[in-house]
Amino acid sequence: MGMYDLIYKKKIGGSLTEEEIKFIVNGFTKDEIPDYQMAAFLMAVCLKGMDKSETIALTMAMAHSGEMLDLSAIEGIKADKHSTGGVGDKTSLVLSPMVASLGIPVAKMSGRGLGHTGGTIDKLESFPGFSTSIPTGQFIDNVNRMKMAIVGQTANLAPADKKIYALRDVTATVDNISLIAGSIMSKKIASGADVIVLDVKTGSGAFMKTLEDSTALAEAMVEIGNGVGRETYAVITDMNQPLGRAVGNSIEVAEAIRTLQGNGPEDLLEVSLTLGSYMLLGAKKAGSVEEARKLLKQTITDQSALNKLAEFVRAQGGDDRAVYNTERFPQASIQEEVISDREGYVTRIITDEIGMTSLVLGGGRETKDSVIDLSVGIQIHKKLGDKVKAGESLASLYGNNMDKMKTAKTRYLKAYTIEDAKPDPAKYIYGIVTRDGLTQF
Amino acid sequence: MGMYDLIYKKKIGGSLTEEEIKFIVNGFTKDEIPDYQMAAFLMAVCLKGMDKSETIALTMAMAHSGEMLDLSAIEGIKADKHSTGGVGDKTSLVLSPMVASLGIPVAKMSGRGLGHTGGTIDKLESFPGFSTSIPTGQFIDNVNRMKMAIVGQTANLAPADKKIYALRDVTATVDNISLIAGSIMSKKIASGADVIVLDVKTGSGAFMKTLEDSTALAEAMVEIGNGVGRETYAVITDMNQPLGRAVGNSIEVAEAIRTLQGNGPEDLLEVSLTLGSYMLLGAKKAGSVEEARKLLKQTITDQSALNKLAEFVRAQGGDDRAVYNTERFPQASIQEEVISDREGYVTRIITDEIGMTSLVLGGGRETKDSVIDLSVGIQIHKKLGDKVKAGESLASLYGNNMDKMKTAKTRYLKAYTIEDAKPDPAKYIYGIVTRDGLTQF
Predict the structure, then answer these.
(1) Do residue A354 and residue A372 come from a single domain?
(2) Of the candidates B312, B286, B309, which has an alpha carbon nearest to the alpha carbon of residue B95?
(3) Beta-sheet pairing, A195-202 with A231-238
(4) Residue B65 annotated to the active site
(5) Among A368, B63, B73, B215, which residue's CB has the most CB atoms within a 10 Å radius?
(6) What are the DSSP E strand ranges found in A142-192?
(7) Mind telling me how many Å the CA of A164 is from chain B's nearest CA?
């Protein structure tokens, strides 16, 4: 078997065997296959596609290219959630304590963010003293003791995916469903959870801009997960505007806390409840989505989720008093309002641009080495369908640098379209994909 | 403009501008664009194609990437011929003296062979003392004085093509018409001829195995050549068996000499006359193919072509006595016969394998650094359609090593299919492509 022949086979539309795909993934990871051959192969994959068995083989070869996290020492069915990424997405912070407070083990490995805002790991560092790099032994102990722990991804998680992704990123071979699905699922599978609930975002702020692409990705990932014995669900959720009303890092944690206190925005609550329900369903804690939602809502009413969050923060060295008093989070020194210059309804938000506004303020990473300012961010006042008067504030921006603030204000304002006609109400969830297929909402 | 965007544009089937193609070719040649991006681009080209204007832009960018040979100091319309390569192909040695003896300047740059036999340059070295690396000034003087000179390709001829070809060769991106046509034509255009006659081989021993592919390549090259102001013709010729009856180096030169003496094989003569006719037509020496053929045949009858060959060999330092006495060529020490084990007609010859037999004997290069044994080769006795008796010789093999000889004999025999039914007569020429399109024969 030689790489040349395998490139050729894919180029003429052939289907590669599991053995052939392993040869490619392992060879490339070990630097035995050069970048240029892999690049030609990836382009052929983009233009000729991969079938189901090839996609599964690719995913598993990448998952097995590094450490496979062994969660067998954790009692019970381990549930995990993964989002394809969006602006204002803090559902992990809301649903993890809800689900854990119901006794389902949440042993989460999470990445740092690159781009408009930080990842869950960055956001959690808003709690003074919080550590995201506890040893594996303590990670497992914590989950067994109190059902919840979140740590940063180890460097050796699916290294093949990391290397392949870096090449795709510079060769215009990013947008292929099998490659995207394989990349996400390889890390989730290596992270060891039994139940995987995927939040596939769709819309102007999502990686997948159209419902068609998002659905295809959701279906591919559910097929992979169930194909390798992980109970997998995907929820297709809206990203035509930021989720909730807070964008940044500590400001997002504060909104997650308000949601656990029963005062959160409706869309964030709804998406968190839906994702959480499938975690419960997969973990056999509930027999139906309705039952699961009821259980999850109860964790807000009786404050058990909020207390679980505090317990979790404390266990990882963080100042849990911030859970009950968010003024303990890092605070920005400047607040400015983005003022609307006209009256009407918010009909369109270029969601990526809201993310870029947060990045400009200092809340995201332009490069891997950028340092995130956890205190900066955006509090959104007007969302899709909201009535706006001229002179009213669309959002409050929090920053620490006046020049950045000016740029951010201009960008934010430009991201909004305000028109006379009231638009249709915004949707939160478009569909669910289970092993039985897609249910559209 | 960035390479990423250009890869993406081609991937989605877009047509690149001349400026964009120059950016890619120049950037890659100067090592500013890495191999892996070029490999992804080339695969996208293979799967999405290039249109006529892209193909011309690619060709010209590659031609201009190095030295453009200036033949303006040579009087008259300069004609050149190029073959896509085949087994036993010695037409350059036959038609160059014929055409030159009629006063048409033949200023030829030729490559060394890689693979089954040597190139024209290697074969010419069968003449003791012959030099293929005379200075450009003398090259031009020789053509002005006696209308014929053949030298090796300078290292700086279309270096972009050399670099791109090396990458295509390891990334399964060889078989795209635009890339192949551009590669050949960039070198021909940089070599400076006004008239380009292409010999596009088709069949089991050709790079293009099917008539359809060969025709497409011929059409693409003629389109490029005429598109950039070079009078270009392509003749599609048969390569389902070796051309002529000699395969090797000095043995092929001897056959070319016999042809100029009027004793050559019919197929070699016919192909040489046809290619030569279009050189004459392009150089305005003849008004019709019929007239051109008559002129060319006359150069055999009156021995002017043979004498031109001797004059040319002498001018480049070679022993021209070998033209009149081919025993002066390097001679092999062993001769063996390939004996047929059955009776019937030769119905099929795996022509590549005949080439490999010559390579095994030592007549070709396995790697760039291999040294060619000019004395070894094959004299073919039975060609397609010939009647064979059991025990009769299919070919005489000439070599200098008994082990190699044994391997060669086995390979040669296996390349033949001998069956009871007499096949249709073999064809020599399938069609001609001019600026007015294809004429099938």
Answers:
(1) yes
(2) B309
(3) parallel
(4) no
(5) B63
(6) 148-152
(7) 12
Q: Does B213 lie in the same domain as B171?
A: no
What ipTM goes with this model?
0.85
- Closest-approach residue (CA) in chain B for A166: B36
User: With an 8 Å Cβ cutoff, are B40 and A172 in contact?
Assistant: yes
- Block residue for tokens 């204000």: A409
Q: Do A47 and B47 touch (CB under 8 A)?
A: yes
Calculate the average pLDDT of chain A: 95
Residue A31 known to be catalytic: no
B194, B279, B284 from B288: Cα distances, Å: 19, 11, 9
Residue of B nearest to A6 (CA): B172
Tokens of residue B112, six digits: 């060394």
Dist. CA A347–CA A423, nearest whole Å: 6
Residue A73 in domain: no
> Is B381 an active-site residue?
no
Q: Is A379 left (phi over 0), alpha (psi -120 to 50) or beta?
A: beta
Which positions ≥6 away from B380 have C-beta within 8 Å? B88, B242, B244, B245, B246, B247, B354, B394, B395
Residue of A nearest to B5 (CA): A172
Arithmetic mean of pLDDT, B61-70: 94
Please report the number of interchain residue pairs, chain A to chain B, with beta-carbon separation below 8 angstroms: 82
Query: Do residues B301 and B435 share a domain?
Result: yes
Domain of residue B247 covers 79-154+184-325+429-440
Q: Tens of pLDDT along A396-417?
A: 999 999 999 999 999 999 999 9
Give the pLDDT confidence of B139-189 residue by residue, as tens digits.
Answer: 999 999 999 999 998 878 999 999 999 999 999 999 899 999 999 999 999
Q: Token pair 């290397």 is at which residue? A: A163
pLDDT at A114: 67
The Cα of B188 is separated from the nearest Cα of chain A by a number of Å equal to: 28
Measured in whole angstroms, how far is the alpha carbon of residue A410 from the centre of its chain? 27
* Whether residues A213 and A232 fall in one domain: yes
- Of A10, A78, A81, A82, which one is the catalytic site residue? A82
* Domain-embedded: residue A424: no
Instruction: Spell out the alpha helix ranges (H) of A243-350.
Output: 250-260, 266-282, 289-301, 304-315, 321-324
Nearest to B47 among A11, A35, A39 (CB): A11
Which residues lie closer than 8 Å to A106 by C-beta, 6 or more apart?
Answer: A78, A79, A80, A96, A99, A100, A143, A147, A148, A149, A150, A279
Report residue B263 as tokens.
Answer: 């004793």
Q: Is residue A196 helix, strand or coil?
A: strand
B45 and B99 inside one domain: no
Residue linked to tokens 């293979």 = B46
Question: For B368-423, how does the pLDDT look when each residue is reduced to its tens digit (9 = 90+)?
Answer: 788 899 999 999 999 999 999 999 999 999 999 999 999 999 999 999 999 999 99
Query: Is residue B64 over pLDDT 80?
Result: yes
**What are the residues whose beta carbons fall under 8 Å from the beta carbon of A62, sequence distance 6 or more?**
A25, A158, A160, A161, A164, A182, A183, A186
Query: Choosing from B82, B108, B162, B285, which is the catalytic residue?
Result: B82
Q: Is residue A142 part of a domain?
A: yes
Statement to judge: residues A312 and A192 lie in one domain: yes
pTM of the model: 0.88
Contact predicate B394/B388, CB 8 Å: yes
Instruction: Say if residue A365's pLDDT is above 90.
Output: no
| Cβ count within 10 A of residue B248 | 34
> Where residue B372 sits, what CATH number does that domain have?
3.90.1170.30
A303: helix, coil or strand?
Answer: coil
Predicted confidence at residue A119, as pLDDT, reads 87
Of A68-77, B92-101, B410-419, give the lowest mean pLDDT range: A68-77
Question: Residues B221, B283: one domain?
Answer: yes
Contact residues, chain A, for B5 at CB < 8 Å: 172
Catalytic residue among B80, B161, B352, B373: B161
Half-sphere exposure of B42 (CA within 13 A, CB side): 36
